[in-house]
Amino acid sequence: PSLGPLVGGFTIDALSWRHIFLVPMPLVAISFAMGVVFMPSKKFSRRLPAFDWTGYVLLATGLICLMTGIGNGHRWGWGSDGILGLFTIGIIAATAFVYWQAHAKAPLLDLSFFLNPRFAAAMVIAFVFGAGNFATNYAIPVFAQTIQGFTPTKAGMVLMPAGLLLMMMIPFAGKLADRVPPHYPIMTGVALFALATYLMSGGDVNTPFVMVAVFAVFSRLGLGLVMPNMGAAAMRGIPPDRINKAAGAYNFTRQLGGAFGINLVVVVMEYRTAYHADALAATQTSANSLTREMLGKVERLLSESGLPDAASQAGAYDFLSAVIHTQAQTFGFQDAFLVISMVFIAALIPAWMLKRTK
Whole-model pTM above 0.70? Predict the structure, then answer.
């Protein structure tokens, strides 16, 4: 989380965005080799159950269709045949997956865990955690590049202090999980993340680099408090022989939240940007004295630079269009960060429920 955005940004600046998919390959190869050499193998005394291919296909189909539909709904049109078809297939596949998991002998996801109120509350937090983590990992660098004009490398540097803090927070938060009830650090972390994203919702082109980095640090401070305590809260009360399955359900829920988080934050930004662009454009009329004044100044500057009158007028309108688009994008990002903050505020409810559940 600290080096990834920086390395990715540097790679884009030095080469191209396509190369960021090649950078991890040597590390993956090294990790694979080290895993083969150093990770202990284990012989099972009993035969392992067959892999749930039916559940896997249903899950993959549902997620692919739903994610594709959410990600392209604004561009294709939410009522278009393609989007409605994707949502229909996705919902049917997801429903079939839940039904199959409830009846399969060896399901991918043991739904009985969710009957435990503590585990269910922890899974809600895990979903929100994944959504917020992935969404801000995407939104903050894009905000820095799109609104503030940072280079990809500088945008990656925005998250570097936050990533380093998160790395240092994990051991501390792990020790904290052994000493205090988990709902206290979880609620504190959720509140910190909500505060950080709320502060980010006020960011614009004039927000200093340091302040954006500080907002990111606050958000990762919150995530650092949530992460180990959330896992500890989820696993409490789970029989030892079922811990591995419960951990799988926990990780699945967190990653699922991440997938939805990125897609939903993009949808919010696109939808709200279009909304604000239309609203701002509607105010740019001949009756708007500020608009007339700005267009006049830009036209004069372009005329003084040697452009013909017709070209100067067209250039002034192009400039106005760019200003409206940039301001609308800023408002779109602000709304997206505000939505994330509101979701984390709502997550305080299941976090508090951890105190009352067993």
Answer: yes
- Quote the pLDDT of residue 246: 86
Per the structure, the complete domain to which residue 104 belongs is given by 50-109
Structurally, the chain folds into a number of domains equal to: 2
- Burial of residue 63 (number of CB atoms within 10 Å: 0-12, 13-18, 19+): middle
Chunked mean pLDDT (size 10), the chain, 358 residues = 76 84 87 83 68 91 92 85 93 94 86 86 90 88 88 85 80 76 86 92 88 88 84 79 84 89 90 90 81 83 80 84 89 93 91 73
Q: What is the CA radius of gyration of the chain?
A: 24
Which CATH number belongs to the domain containing residue 332 in this structure? 1.20.1250.20
Amino acid in position 190:
V
Alpha-carbon span 205 to 192, nearest angstrom: 24
Q: Which of 284, 262, 280 has its CA nearest to residue 272? A: 280
